[in-house]
C-alpha cells in the first residue's frame, strides 16, 4: 500500500471525548478518496508500531483538508493518544485511502437512509455531505443514536445542513441516556428499535439504499427489520469498526504453534486460543501488514502452506480469496502443523 506523510493543520474538539484531526493535503499530488472510505494511520509508541483505520469525516472536493474524527475507546491506545496528544503541525504516517462503504449512484436512487450510532456517524457524515451537494435528486434521511445531546458529534454541522437542504435532508435523533428533553417526532428516547424502523419506512417511500454504521446491535436490528420489510440485501450496506467474535466459533480452537514465514525470516509463534495469527504476531513485534482488523480490506492476506486455519467473524463470503489465501486478522489455527507465508 502507498504511504504518505501528512501534516496536521487543525485539531477540533467535537465533544468531550471526540476530536477531528484535519490533515493538509500534500502540495503536489493530492490524495484522492471517496466519501465513506477510510485512512489508515500508523504510529510508533514506545518502539511498537500501531496501525488503525479511521473513516474520513471530510468529503472530497467539498472539504479542502483530509479529516478524520476519533472517539475515545475506554483503555484504547490510539484513540486516546489521538485525543490527548495530537496537535497542529504534527506529522503522521498514513496509508492510501481504501474501503468499499461508499455511495454509488445510479439513476434510479431517489432516497438514502443513513443509520448511525456514536462514532459510526463519521463515514455517514462524509457521504451525507457528498450526496447533498453532488446528487440534487437524492433525498437523505439520517437516524442517529447517541447517549445524550452533548455527545452528538457534528451537531452544529447537521443543524446547518438541515437549513441549507430543508426539503431534502431530515434527521431523527435517539438518546439512550438523556433525561431532560421533550420527546417529539424527531427526538426520541432510547435506542433505535424495530418499530421505529418499520414506521419510518412505511411513512417514507423514497428510500432505495441504506447505510449502517455503529454497534452490532444497531446493524442486527436495522438490517433484519429492513429485510423483513422486503428490502433486498443488495440495498443495505454496513461498516464495522470492530470484529465481532462469536464464542461458539472457538469451540474447536486450541493453543497451537504456527510457523510464520515473512520477509525471508521464519519464526515459530505460539497462537493462544482466542487470539488471531495477526494479533499474536504483532504482539511479538513481527510487523505484518494490516489495516482494518475486521476481515474487510485484505491487507493482512497470508498463504497457508500446510495445516488448517479457520477464519472467524467474516461479515460476507470472500470469493476473492484463492483456496490457500487467508486473512490473518481473523485466522485461527485448527491443527499443530500450520505453516503460513506472508
Ligand atoms: C473501517 C474502520 C473505520 C473506522 N473509523 C473510525 C472512526 O471514524 N472513528 C473512530 O473513532 N473509530 C473508528 N474506527 C475504530 C478505530 O480504528 C479503532 O479501532 C479505535 O479507535 C480503537 O483503537 P484503540 O487503539 O484506541 O483501541 P485498542 O487499544 O485497539 O483496543 C482497546 C479495547 O477496545 C476495544 N475496541 C477496539 N475498537 C473498538 C471500537 N471501535 N469500539 C469499542 N471498543 C473497541 C478492543 O476490543 C479492546 O478491548 C474504525 C475502524 C474500522 C475497522
Ligand atoms: S486487516 Fe483488513 S482484512 Fe485483515
Automatic annotation (TrEMBL):
<feature type="domain" description="2Fe-2S ferredoxin-type">
    <location>
        <begin position="256"/>
        <end position="342"/>
    </location>
</feature>
<protein>
    <submittedName>
        <fullName>Iron-sulfur cluster-binding domain-containing protein</fullName>
    </submittedName>
</protein>
<feature type="domain" description="FAD-binding FR-type">
    <location>
        <begin position="1"/>
        <end position="104"/>
    </location>
</feature>
<dbReference type="InterPro" id="IPR036010">
    <property type="entry name" value="2Fe-2S_ferredoxin-like_sf"/>
</dbReference>
<dbReference type="InterPro" id="IPR017938">
    <property type="entry name" value="Riboflavin_synthase-like_b-brl"/>
</dbReference>
<dbReference type="Pfam" id="PF00111">
    <property type="entry name" value="Fer2"/>
</dbReference>
<keyword id="KW-0479">Metal-binding</keyword>
<dbReference type="InterPro" id="IPR012675">
    <property type="entry name" value="Beta-grasp_dom_sf"/>
</dbReference>
<keyword id="KW-0001">2Fe-2S</keyword>
<keyword id="KW-0274">FAD</keyword>
<dbReference type="Pfam" id="PF00175">
    <property type="entry name" value="NAD_binding_1"/>
</dbReference>
<dbReference type="InterPro" id="IPR050415">
    <property type="entry name" value="MRET"/>
</dbReference>
<keyword id="KW-0560">Oxidoreductase</keyword>
<keyword id="KW-0285">Flavoprotein</keyword>
<dbReference type="InterPro" id="IPR006058">
    <property type="entry name" value="2Fe2S_fd_BS"/>
</dbReference>
<dbReference type="InterPro" id="IPR017927">
    <property type="entry name" value="FAD-bd_FR_type"/>
</dbReference>
<dbReference type="InterPro" id="IPR001709">
    <property type="entry name" value="Flavoprot_Pyr_Nucl_cyt_Rdtase"/>
</dbReference>
<dbReference type="InterPro" id="IPR039261">
    <property type="entry name" value="FNR_nucleotide-bd"/>
</dbReference>
<keyword id="KW-0411">Iron-sulfur</keyword>
<dbReference type="InterPro" id="IPR001041">
    <property type="entry name" value="2Fe-2S_ferredoxin-type"/>
</dbReference>
<dbReference type="Pfam" id="PF00970">
    <property type="entry name" value="FAD_binding_6"/>
</dbReference>
<dbReference type="InterPro" id="IPR008333">
    <property type="entry name" value="Cbr1-like_FAD-bd_dom"/>
</dbReference>
<keyword id="KW-0408">Iron</keyword>
<dbReference type="InterPro" id="IPR001433">
    <property type="entry name" value="OxRdtase_FAD/NAD-bd"/>
</dbReference>
